[in-house]
Write a structure and sequence with these properties.
- Residues 1-27 are annotated as: Disordered.
- Residues 14-27 have a biased composition (Polar residues).
- The protein has 27 residues and is mainly α.
- Helix content is 41%, strand content 0%.
Length: 27
């Protein structure tokens, strides 16, 4: 699942991780 987060950074944003820095992504 999280084998290559560097290759799929956009997918990581879709994950709950965005809950930690939603403003940063929207910034």
């Amino acid at each position: 699942m999280y084998s290559s987060p560097t290759i799929v950074p956009r997918e990581k944003a879709s994950t709950p991780s965005s809950n930690i820095h939603p403003a940063t992504l929207h910034s």
